[in-house]
Amino acid sequence: MPPESQEQTSIHGLRGLINRTAHKTALLSSLVAALFVAPAAPVHASEMSDINKLMRSGQYAEALTKTDAILAKHPRDAQLRFTKGLILAEQNRSAEAIAVFTKLTEDFPDLPEPYNNLAVLYASEGQYDKARASLDMAMRTNPTYATALENLGDVYAKLASQAYDKALQIDPANNVPQPKLTLLRSLNGNATGGTVPRLASAAPGQAAQAQRDAKAKADAAAAEQQERTRALAAEKASQQAAADKAAAEKTAIAKASADKAASEKAAADKAAADKAAAEKAAADRAAAEKAAADKAATEKAAADKARAEKAAADKAAADQKQKELLAQKEKDKAERLEREKADKAARAEKEKEKEKAAQAEKLAAAEKAAQAKAAADKAKADKAKADAASDQDKNAVLAALNSWARDWSEKDVRGYLGHYASDFETPKGASRKEWAEERRARIEDKGHITVKVSNAQISIKGNIATVRYRQIYNSNRLTVDSRKTLVFVKQGNRWLIKQERSGG
């Protein structure tokens, strides 16, 4: 049977063991007064009797309610507190029962029964080291306490079985005896010499023999545990090495996780700092904008006031000036009438002279218009002649372009090279001969060549023509669609290529 199943059997069997020993142990209603540091008010016997009846009938909730009600009046009563611990244990509320018995050991350290019951509860939870420590305390309060001594033997046996768990897995037939720890149901203290009622009624010799048997059982269990521990030492050392390795790996993983967490925290802190800085900058910017707005408003108010004052002053000055103007106007009117009268005679004379001058100007304008018309007619004729010559040159340039493309497509190297002027600007500063040989080799090396030109735009200035066009070059090795520019120069009656460049 696996150790876990054994422990469960032990725990589930504990209640049966408690029930089987209940009728052998009398439940006392009070403590001997000498056991208390500060005596508590005695509980009425009828109240304890009622609680015991409820417990015997399995009504633990009602028993606990009644116990708590009496404890509210007598909080220092050890017997009632001990009874409450028993009720909680019966209700499987082990943690609360352990708390009650632990407090009893603190308030009444000379009582062995709370230590014993703590050991039983610890053992039911598999905490055998705590159970052993509690029983050791019980034995210190009364070294002749037979029940605690017998329970201590069972605890040692369980500790030995735990040390032998590995052996149990290898040999399932090896059954370790289950502990049969006894939960005490009465609180007698050390008044009876530490023996339970069933031992107190036996002969003194039998009691001594029972103590010797229990001690011998505990000594044998301890020796068995020591022997099994030595037998498993090597295996435990191996297991410890594996555990150390696992711990090291766990530590490394924990460190990596911590480093990652620290990095994430640093990033979060930086983001928070950046956010705070941005918020501060925004706040500073808003404050600056508000200060600027306030300053602008103040300056505007001052400017408005200055403008209003200036407008008032300007209006006063304008009114004064208007008065002066009216006076001056009257004066000027009188003087004007005098001048008009004098000027009227002068104008009449002048009009006669003006008519003569106008007649002369009219004759001169007619002669000038005739001259201008003659010049315009001549310019128009010259432009028509120039446009005709320009169109003729553009057609000649376009014909030269198409002839050049045709000779190239037909691989007529001689005709192709004949389209280039003697002062053609060769690429990369090569000589005319080197360039011509290079072009011949590249043309003759192709299986076939097709060169098409389209969208030609021609501009002519004197003997220089610039042609920008689209060129589609196709051979057995390459196809290129690009924009090119050729600069032609007129030499004699032919337009020859002087410059050649990509783009346009």
Automatic annotation (TrEMBL):
Keywords: Repeat, Signal, TPR repeat. Residues 195-215, 283-392 are annotated as: Disordered. Residues 283-359, 375-392 have a biased composition (Basic and acidic residues). It holds the Pfam family Cds6_C. TPR repeats lie at residues 112-145. Transmembrane segments: none annotated. This is Tetratricopeptide repeat protein.
